Amino acid sequence: MDDKNSRSIKSYVIGDFIAAFVAWLLFFIVRKTYVEHLDFDLNSYIYDKNFIVGGLILSAFWVYFYALTNTYYSVYEKSRINELIKTFIQTIIGSIILFLLFLLDDVIRSYRDYYYLIFFLITIHFIVTSFIRLTLLFIAKNKVKSGEVEFKTILLGNRSDIYKVYRELLSLKPLQGISISSLWTDVENKENESVDIPVYPMDLKAIKEEIKKNNYSLAILAFTKEEKDNISDYTIELDSYIKHIKVVSVFADILSSNKRIKSPIGNVLLNVNVDVMSPWQKIVKRTFDIVVSFIGILCAIPIYALTAICIKINSKGPILYKQKRIGKNEVPFEIYKFRSMYIDAEKHGPQLSAKEDSRITGVGRIIRKYRIDELPQFVNIFRGDMSFVGPRPERAFYAKQILDRRADYKYIYKVRPGATSWGVVYHGYADNLEKMVERVDFDLFYINNFSLLLDFRILLYTFITIIKGKGI
């Protein structure tokens, strides 16, 4: 399945590149004939170096833009309706960026031509890209229906009719590609139902190892209504190990509020989805992060230089401080800060900083007060390690301790960590484990109630905190 996933992603990338080039050709023709009033001559366009080079550069831009907006994952897992909506939003944002960068200097008769140009660009690009994408999705869905592509599935739960559920799920294979490879349950097969796969007793640790070892892509939960806590626990525990989790639909209502339910699959299953951002929100949020962090890096160059000089004069050691943090999907990354402490501040092991911390330098106290020490994180945000707003990332040392106290802490790994967060706005930087645990509620509130408006409010409160000098 991994090889097929890889090929499906490559086909999508190639399809998008071709679509962008074809759309550029069609737009180029409209632009030359309508705006510049030249006679239509396809050969002259094809042999025009400006057209060829421009088309290749713009096609590469579109592929890069799609990659930034999380487009390239398995075609077999995509929804055609969602992909159409996402393509439309991507087309509008990308076309506006291209228009502002390259088309505003066109010779025009009136400003009305600008409106026509942007309309043509959006319309042509959307139609061509959607046509190629939907064609690829149609081919992919047919491969699933024919059995050429299967989703390796693990079924687990303690419903009394678990073996009946197994048989019913087998009927979905032609439609959904579900291929159940193992069944985990403590329920005895008293009816001696025919089961053609291994059956194991429920053991969460063993289930995790099985998933990792055999590369499952789907887990189906079938618990009784009385086992509400088990469903929540298994969802939390397995979410980082497997791409998709579904529940038997009759039990969808017992999921806790920090999990959103998608539309039914057939009449049997519902998707459990902890990705609370819709496609367009992802695009807008990531676009904002890229654009503003890039502008921030450029504008902050004088502050970077001045801060670096002050740090170097004030104390020995490097200007920048790098530290491993746990990011989205539990992937570690290095967070960048201006050094605000003396070197060897943690020679006795990890320690949280406090207001009257003797390890903080004189300059460090000032830059922490106004959060100047956080400015290098513009680079983290631009790279995609972080977002402007999101749960504050912790070191593995403290993340493990928080997780021991709060199992639902794992949900923060579903989103990019943030340079600021709801918890930081209200609590400030935690100086002990208790405060860090308390902050989990704010992080989960943010994840469960995400909106672009909430991001704006958090940024506004953060700005006020910086102006007041309450960074420490």
Describe what this molecule looks like in 3D:
With 472 residues, this protein is of the alpha/beta class. 53% of the residues lie in helices and 12% in strands. It has 3 domains: 145 residues, no CATH class; 123 residues, Rossmann fold; 189 residues, no CATH class. Helix 10 runs antiparallel to helix 13. About 4% of the residues have low confidence.
As for the number of domains, it is 3
Order of helices and strands: HHHHHEHHEEHEHEEEHHEEHHEHEHHH
**Helical percentage:** 40-55%
| Ends apart, CA distance between termini | 50 Å
Mean pLDDT: 82
Count the DSSP helices: 17
Largest sheet descriptor:
7 strands, mixed
Radius of gyration: 26 Å
Number of strands: 11
Instruction: Please report which band the strand proportion falls in: under 5%, 5-15%, 15-25%, 25-35%, 35-45% or over 45%.
Output: 5-15%
Shape: flat
Low-confidence runs:
251-267
Q: Going across the biggest sheet, name each strand in turn.
A: 3-2-1-4-5-7-6
Query: Based on helices, strands and strand pairing, what is the structural class?
Result: alpha/beta
Question: Would you kindly provide a brief summary of this structure?
Answer:
The protein has 472 residues and is an alpha/beta fold. 53% of the residues lie in helices and 12% in strands.
How would you summarize the topology of this molecule?
Blueprint: H1 2-35, H2 42-46, H3 49-68, H4 80-103, H5 112-146, E1 151-156, H6 162-170, H7 173-176, E2 178-184, E3 199-200, H8 204-214, E4 218-221, H9 228-238, E5 244-248, E6 260-265, E7 269-273, H10 279-299, H11 301-314, E8 320-326, E9 332-338, H12 362-369, H13 377-383, E10 387-389, H14 396-405, E11 418-420, H15 422-427, H16 433-448, H17 452-467
Parallel strand pairs: 1-2, 1-4, 2-3, 4-5, 10-11
Antiparallel strand pairs: 5-7, 6-7, 8-9
